Amino acid sequence: MVYNIMPLSKNNIFLLAFYLFIHILVLNLFYGSSDGLSIYWQENFNVKAMLVYLLSVTVTVIFYLGVSWIRSSYQRKK
Questions:
Q1: Which of 13, 25, 57, 77 has its CA at 20 to 30 Å from residue 37's CA atom?
Q2: Strand partners, 37
Q3: 45: DSSP letter
């Protein structure tokens, strides 16, 4: 009998993508140096940066789905 430990739902995947996007956005917003904290508003919210953030989130979610699929098919073989 197969027991799915963590069922993947669309809601879980959306939350993962949302949290990753916010995490990347906040991390790239601030830069700390010996001169102090700098905030990059304009550089962080341009179209090119947003596309890079969305690409990073997409690749991470696809990797997560791939690992989850491999894990569940490995568990089915046991």
A1: 57
A2: 32
A3: T
Cα dihedral sign, 30-53-22-68: negative
Instruction: Provide the CA 8 distance to its chain's centre, in angstroms.
Output: 15
Q: Which domain holds residue 25?
A: 10-77
Residue 41 tokens, joined: 């508003």
Residue 55 CA to residue 53 CA, distance in Å, equals 5
CA distances from residue 48 to 21, 43, 60 in whole angstroms, order as listed: 14, 9, 18
Torsions phi, psi for 18 (to 5 deg): -65, -50
Flag whether 29 is in a domain.
yes
pLDDT digits (tens, 9 = 90+) for 14-52: 999 999 999 999 988 888 778 888 888 788 888 999 999
